[in-house]
Structures are given as C-alpha cells and as structure tokens.
Design goal:
It contains 21 helices and 15 strands. By secondary structure, it is α/β, with parallel strands linked by helices. It has a domain at 88-102 and 251-439: Rossmann fold, CATH 3.40.50.1100. The model is unreliable at 456-460 and 519-528 (pLDDT under 50).
C-alpha cells in the first residue's frame, strides 16, 4: 500500500500509485513500509538479472500477475547489450556499474523499458480502460528512454490481448536549449505512432514545472485540459521518477552490484560497499538508499552534483535553496535545481510526518527554499555529498583514462571527481560508481575530457556532425566500437520540430489528444 508524502489520506494500491504518479495532494507516493529483501538475493550462487529483478520488484506490486511481470522483465533484459544487463567493471581501484547498455545509452532504460507494461497492468487491475497519455519532462535522457519504453519504433512492444485498453502514448517535453545534439536527435527523430516530442523554451526546471502544471490543470474539473481528456477518455500518467514504477526497478541493479563484488571477493571484512551516484532528480540515489534500508549491505551513499550543487549545499547545511543561478553544463541530466525525489527523503527526515513535509514543500513553492531542523538532519547520516565543476570532472576522467584506458561519460566523471573530493573510495571498502550514460552519448564532452580534439571541431562542424566525429576519435583512442544505438543516428531526420512556451503546454496536450486520438483509433482497428 502506498501513502502520500503530504497527507494522511487513505493509502492506495500500487496500481493507483503507478497510474496517478503524483498523489492528489501534490505529494509523492511511497510504500507504507519497504519490503525487506528476499534472503535468496544475498545468498551465494548464480542468479539471472530478470530473476533478481523479479525478487526485488515483485513485493512492491502485490496483485500484479507473476507471469506478466516476469515476461516484462525478460523482454526488458533482452533489449540490453549483455545478458547481465548492468556489467560491473573495475578500473582505477573503483567499480563502475554500467547502467547504459540499453537502447538509449543511459540508465533510465532500466526502468523505462518496463513502464509501458507496468502502466498496462495497472490500468487492468484498476479496471480503467481509458487511454493513457504519458507526459514526460526530460533533461535529455528520460525523454528518449520513455519513447523507447512505451512507444518503441517498429512497434516492438509486448503483445497486447484482445479487449485490452489502447496502447499507452507519450508526449515528451525537453528544454530547447538544454540537451546535447545526440539527445535532441534521439528524441526528435523518434518515429512511432503515439509519440510526440516538443521543445520547451527554457531550462529543465521550467519544463518540469510546466508538466506539473499540466497535471494540476487536468485535475481541475472544468478546466480546458480536463474537458479535453474527458472527451477523449484519456488519463495522464507520469514517466518521471516521481512515479514509483521508476524507482522499484532501480533498486534491483544495486543488489546486482553487491552480488558481483561478493562473487569476486572484492567486499572487505565488513561486507559493505560504498556508492557514488551522479545526481539530478534524486531518483537513482534514492533507489540505492531504499536498497540499503531493505537490507542490502551498503555503507555511505555519496550524492554527487555538478556546478548546480543545490543538493551538495542541502546535505552540508540542511538548507535547500533553489533560487540561484542555473548553469548549463556538459552533464545536462544533472542540471536541475528542483530535485523532485528529494521529497521522499525529506519525508523520512521528518519521521513520516506528512504535515511537516507539506509545510516544507509549500515553503519551497513560495520562497524557493526550506530548511531542516537538527533532528531531521541527523536522519540523513547515510549520505555524503560531493560536487565537481567542469574542469575537475574532466580532469578526473582524463586521469582515469590515461591510467587504465577506461572511458566515462561527463556525468560519471562528475561522480568520480565528487566522490574523490568527499574522500571516497575509503580504505578497505569497495566504491561502486553509477556509470549512468555511455561516453558515446556525449562524445564531444567525453573526447574533450580525455584530451582528444577532432578536426571536426576545429573546422567548425556544428552539432551532430561534431558529435559523430568526436565519437570516431573516442572509439579509435579507446579501441571500442561505438554502440549500434549511436551509429544508427547517422542520417536520421528530425520529425518533431515544434518548440513552445512553457505556458502553452496545456494547449499542446489538447492538440496532441486530437492528433493522437486519430492515430490511436487507426491503430486500434488493426489490433486482433
Ligand atoms: C537522469 C540522469 C542522471 C540523474 O539521475 P537522477 O535519478 O535524476 O538523480 C545522471 N546521469 C545521467 C546520464 C542521467 O541520465
């Protein structure tokens, strides 16, 4: 059962929590109590990734049919480059958990390749046969991962049975100036019925706020958006990490990392591992902390920030100050000043007092800040904070590459440098860093960080061409093949070219309901 962080409204089942994303009071859902890890997960012996993920995830979704859950996990794993899904690679005395071997080259794939099926199962359990439109605010990586997870190109989704609700559809909103050329083309070239992509004039926080405003408008009876949704019998859902269906799958790979360390004899005498996570919306690291609270032997969790170090300051001072200059960095998925999932940690800090969380979050909305008391701060002692600006992050990536030949992307580089500045790794304890994106997803920045500068850049090749040239350099220097998902970008066409103001998002969604309605009913005719 799931409760809201902001009120003591009666708990809801997992299917309601998945379908609504946000609770009606504006809070986030979390499980009333975290299910302890199945002891088999910590026992010796091999276990496939889908089996491991099933044992971690299933207790969060009682009532979801086991065969479908298992089939979804198998289908998701099959979309990754390797059967182990998330390889753990040792380099430079650290362990990199490569979470980027999926279809869009970033860790969001681990959860979003499951989301379409989770939404479909939730709708069936809730007896809701309205259409689903998933809204996504993205800082660059979530958008394409949601498109691939929910409306894959070529229609490669799971089979749907006769009479089931129409397939979920997606509308993605990305900050028009805030994503890399590769990220932009991945999204704007996505060619699948039921998929829409818009640029938003502004940064990620503005895009995220606009999407939240659309959810609020949809919940207001009589608003234009509510009327359009009712007329097309559609409900809005969220693919952002506020959705509990995003968080649960992210717990599984931390369990895998610990098992790999144990199997390789890399755990020290305490049996613990420390973690360092490049953080933006606080989803990935929250999942790691949940894993610890469920019984995974984890020591410290290092929350790594880039120059937008609002989380670093929060952990250091107890004060969250969102009103500050915003910097566009080479780790765009961490360029976030309002970190949505932190609210779930604040709920814990407040000992589960929803009134206190509601008042802190009201303060954040009104004044851009909130502050924890000393008792509340003392409940965050599992966390350490570190941050790294562009130069030290690039420098850390360069040193690692020169010493070991191992390449990291700019987000992972921030975690590497930030962990180091916080004093990690510590003697006697392995440090696992979340490698959240492939270096080939950010080839220009990755190549520049290791001192490679292509002629493409100096001759003024712009945008995607420069990225492609940098990828070739990177591949040669590291002796790697660029991943197929990257190579496939060459020659793709932008299909979605619209850029809108944050205030027009409701109108865009109303327009989308019309456009998608037509393609959905065409699609429905073709279904068995
Ligand atoms: C999304 C993302 C992050 C940040 O993850 P959160 O769960 O939002 O904290 C870090 N790195 C990459 C590459 C990402 O795509």
């Amino acid at each position: 059962m799931y409760v809201s962080t902001r009120s003591s409204a009666p708990p809801v089942g997992p299917e309601r929590a998945v379908l609504s994303g946000l609770a009606p009071d504006g809070g986030l859902y979390l499980p009333r109590s975290l299910p302890p890890l199945d002891p088999e997960l910590l026992a010796p012996g091999p276990m496939s990734y889908p089996e491991l993920a099933y044992r971690v995830i299933a207790p969060f979704f009682p009532g979801f049919p086991e065969p479908r859950l298992r089939a979804a996990l198998e289908a998701s794993a099959a979309r990754f480059e390797t059967a182990e899904v998330a390889p753990l690679v040792r380099a430079g005395g650290r362990h990199f958990l490569e979470l980027y071997r999926g279809p869009t080259l970033a860790f969001k794939d681990l959860a979003l390749t499951l989301l379409g099926e989770f939404l479909a199962m939730s709708a069936e359990l809730a007896g809701d046969d309205s259409g689903i439109l998933v809204l996504v605010a993205t800082s660059g990586d979530t958008g394409k991962a949601a498109l691939e997870g929910i409306c894959p190109e070529g229609g490669g989704s799971l089979p749907r049975r006769a009479g089931a609700a129409p397939a979920p559809r997606v509308a993605v909103f990305y900050p028009s100036e805030g994503v890399s050329p590769v990220q932009r083309l991945q999204m704007t070239s996505h060619d699948a019925p039921g998929a829409l992509v818009y640029g938003i004039r502004g940064n990620f926080d503005e895009a995220q706020r606009a999407v939240k405003a659309a959810f609020a408008e949809a919940a207001r009876p009589g608003s234009p958006l509510a009327a359009a949704l009712a007329a097309s019998s559609t409900r809005l859902c969220s693919a952002n990490s506020i959705n509990i269906a995003r968080l649960a799958p992210q717990i599984a790979y931390w369990v895998k990392a610990w098992r790999d360390l144990r199997d390789r004899g890399e755990l020290g005498s305490e049996g613990l591992m420390d973690l360092a996570v490049p953080t933006g919306n606080f989803g990935d690291i929250l999942a790691a902390w949940y894993a610890k609270r469920m019984g995974l032997p984890v020591g410290a969790l290092v929350c790594a920030s880039n120059r937008n170090k609002v989380l670093y300051d929060f952990f250091e001072t107890g004060r969250y100050e969102a009103r500050r200059p915003f910097y566009a960095t080479s780790s765009p998925s961490m360029d976030i000043l309002v970190s949505s999932n932190l609210e779930r940690l604040v709920y814990h800090a407040a000992s589960g007092d929803p009134g206190r969380v509601a008042s802190l979050m009201a303060g954040l909305a009104e004044t851009g800040r909130f502050e924890l008391g000393p008792d509340e701060r003392s409940r965050l002692s599992d966390f350490r904070a570190g941050w790294a600006d562009e130069a030290p992050a690039a420098e850390a990536a360069r040193r690692l590459f020169e010493a070991t030949g191992y390449l990291v992307d700019p987000h992972t580089a921030v975690a590497l440098a930030a962990a180091e500045s916080a004093g990690y790794p510590r003697a006697g304890r392995p440090l696992v860093l979340a490698a959240t994106a492939s270096p080939f997803k950010f080839p220009l920045a990755a190549a520049a960080s290791v001192g490679l500068r292509g002629r493409g850049g100096s001759e003024g090749a712009a945008g995607l061409e420069a990225e492609l040239a940098a990828a070739e350099l990177l591949a040669r220097a590291a002796g790697l093949e660029p991943p197929p998902a990257f190579l496939a970008l060459r020659g793709r066409r932008e299909l979605h070219r619209e850029t809108i103001d944050p205030g027009s998002i409701g109108a865009a969604i109303r327009g989308a309901l019309g456009a998608l309605g037509a393609s959905a009913s065409a699609g429905r005719g073709a279904r068995p």
